[in-house]
Specification:
The complex is a heterodimer of chains A (about 325) and B (about 260). With about 325 residues, chain A is an alpha/beta fold. Chain A has eight helices and 16 strands. Helices cover about 30% and strands about 25% of the residues of chain A. The termini of chain B are far apart. In chain B, the strands form three sheets. A nine-stranded mixed β-sheet of chain B has the order 11-10-9-12-8-1-6-7-13, with helices on both faces. In chain B, strands 2-5 form a two-stranded antiparallel sheet. Chain B has a two-stranded antiparallel sheet with strand order 3-4. Chain B is globular and about 70 Å long. The chains are: A alpha/beta (about 325), B alpha/beta (about 260). At the A-B interface, helix 4, strand 5, strand 7, strand 8 and strand 11 of A face helix 3, helix 4, strand 9, strand 11 and strand 14 of B. Strand 16 of chain A pairs parallel with strand 15 (about 240) of chain B.
Chain lengths: ~325, ~260
């Protein structure tokens, strides 16, 4: 058994604040298991005041690189700062937030410090040898692989909302200000277009009514929207409706949003595994499909073999009636 | 002439994977292999550029398996040359090791303007090889591209992030990873497939690239896999029956209320 002084720290980093707090929650647990310290990495311009908040969410230490070059998180300055910190202070474990940018940062830092990186982890634990076990979905949702990294830092990336945000408590901690020469950016952002965000994030919806290829026209989503409204939920789409038919921009599935609502109702969705990978953790899954052989029925709690154009409006009516009187 | 290298992975067709319901072990051996979906988007973009302004398109694969069929598909789509870097010592390579092999192959291929990769592979979906390869080659990179153009020695790429589209510029040589939003990959004609079957696939082994054995395969990989299991699927699978849609809907509504997932 290694003693505390030999153990490197557990580090967390994300450019996304919410995700950072979730990482601090999980990171705390891992650091406790390893009897080591939890540290947050904070990069940017004039960001030092944020350190206090990270301590309140569990960080014993906050490494701060404060530099005007880090404003708006350009890739090369970020990657070079993260690499410098990791090489200098040698953390045992380094968790990154799995945003698209976070994954790029993690891959690049892992290459520079010559280590492995397990992306999009949904399970993290410490094994009997003090190694980080990292579980993630592979093969289009067909399997969960458990992996470990035999080199430090053991790098993992963690998607949003996999782990809970911990409770905030006033706490003291250590701020370590680090200065280092940063690399100049090699790419230039010339334009940014915001993607209009839905009012409620689909990941946060308690009820999701999803439509797939069985919906003939974009306008027909009206009937799904009405059901969703009845249930205080949200409408979601499959990838073909976004990429092939170009009706919408974001889909639910392995390569899109992963959701775990209390109730998922799939309408006219065949249930290819890539979609199923995004809904698998829903509490209750209802499938409505004309085709009795549709694979979605294999993972459904309630199966309705029928025409969604008849069933969905009838379900909205029935629920309105029952919820009012019940 | 513009020289484009497209990295192509032979992926497992994930729709064909089955699991043993009791042991939850996967049955992958009989699942067929195919060219990774997003790599087709990368190839398509390279071929469009070639059709528009002229370019040489090189498909490159590094693997421990026979991936000739995958490269034939790339040639049929319109790639000019195909390189298969294959060695049994590459088996169980992680992204650290795979990006090393690809980087050595790219160095041997000589000067290039662009490397295009799929954003990720459909089987392992790690989305790391492109980023790691650019790092190893010490060139700029732009990930998750949805629109792409080359103007002189500069690429202009619009990429998709969670909350915004970013238009970015970088000087060549540059590596770009491509999403499925970019284009609709062509389906090669029978004629193109016939022609591709006659083209040569250049095969290199570890020795041709002076690959160090300790940097590839299990020894050269930082990541080790302890188990791969099918997820637990415990669903009720209750069929809701009824004489009419209204009756079915009412049954279903009652069941959902009982589950406590609707209403307050």
């Amino acid at each position: 058994m290694k003693t505390m002084s030999q153990r490197g720290e557990v580090w967390v980093f994300s450019e996304n604040r919410d995700l950072m707090l979730e990482l601090l929650g999980k990171g705390s647990e891992l650091a406790q298991k390893l009897q080591t310290k939890l540290a947050a990495v904070l990069l940017g311009r004039g960001v030092e005041k944020g350190a206090k908040e990270f301590m309140g969410y569990g960080a014993h230490k906050v490494y701060v690189v404060d530099n005007p070059m880090l404003e708006n998180s350009p890739s090369e300055p970020y990657v070079s700062a993260l690499t410098y910190l990791a090489s200098q202070y040698k953390p045992e474990i380094f968790l990154f937030g799995s945003t698209r940018r976070g994954k790029e940062f993690a891959s690049r830092v892992a290459t520079r410090v010559e280590t492995g990186c397990v992306p999009d982890c949904t399970h993290l634990s410490i094994d009997g040898n003090g190694r980080l076990l990292m579980g993630r979905v592979v093969y289009g949702g067909n399997a969960v692989a458990t992996q470990f990294c035999r080199v430090n830092p053991q790098i993992a990336t963690v998607p949003p909302r996999v782990f809970e945000k911990p409770a905030y408590k006033e706490r003291q901690g250590e701020i370590i200000k680090v200065e280092t020469k940063l690399e100049e950016p090699r790419t230039e952002v010339v334009e940014v277009k915001e993607i209009e965000a839905p009012k409620v994030k689909i990941e946060e919806a308690k009820v999701v009514v999803a439509g797939g290829r069985g919906i003939e026209k974009k306008e027909d989503f009206k009937i799904l929207e009405e059901l969703a409204e009845t249930l205080g939920g949200q409408v979601a789409y499959t990838r073909p409706l976004c990429e092939d038919r170009k009706w919408f921009t974001d889909w639910v599935g392995l390569s899109g949003h992963k959701i775990k609502p209390a109730l998922y109702i799939g309408c006219g969705i065949s249930g290819v595994i890539q979609h199923v990978a995004g809904i698998r953790d829903s509490k209750i899954i209802v499938a409505i499909n004309k085709d009795p052989e549709a694979p979605i029925f294999e993972i459904a709690d309630y199966k309705v073999i029928g025409d969604l154009y008849e069933i969905v409006p009838a379900l909205a009516t029935a629920l309105k009636k029952l919820l009012k009187t019940g | 002439m513009v020289r484009i290298i497209v990295c192509v992975k032979q992926a497992i067709d994930v729709t064909q994977i089955r699991a043993d319901p009791t042991t939850r072990h996967l049955i992958t051996l009989d699942a067929s292999r195919k060219i990774n979906d997003f790599d087709k988007n990368a190839l398509e973009e390279a071929i469009r550029l070639k059709e528009k302004t002229g370019a040489e398109v090189i498909a490159l694969t590094a693997t421990s398996e026979d991936a000739k069929m995958t490269l034939r598909e790339a040639l049929a789509m319109g790639a000019d040359k195909a390189y298969l870097v294959r060695d049994s010592s590459f088996e169980n390579s992680d992204t650290l090791a795979t990006s090393y092999v690809l980087a050595e192959a790219v160095k041997k291929l000589g000067d290039f303007h662009l490397i295009l990769c799929g954003e990720a592979s459909v089987d392992s979906y790690s989305a790391q090889v492109g980023s790691r390869l650019a790092e190893r080659l010490n060139i700029p990179q732009i990930t998750y591209a949805r629109k792409f153009s080359l103007e002189g020695d500069e690429v202009i790429v619009e990429r998709t992030l969670e909350d915004r589209y970013e238009t970015m510029k970088a000087k060549t040589p540059v590596l770009v990873t491509v999403t499925g939003e970019m284009n609709e990959p062509r389906i090669p004609s029978l004629m193109a497939i016939m022609k591709a079957s006659k083209k040569e696939i250049i095969t290199w082994g570890a020795g041709d690239l002076n690959i160090s054995a300790e940097k590839v395969g299990e020894t050269g990989s930082a990541i080790h896999v302890t188990e791969v299991l099918a997820p637990k699927a415990e669903r009720k699978k209750v069929l809701i029956k009824g004489e009419s849609p209204a009756e079915i809907a009412e049954e279903l509504a009652k069941a959902l209320i009982k589950e406590g997932v609707v209403g307050r």
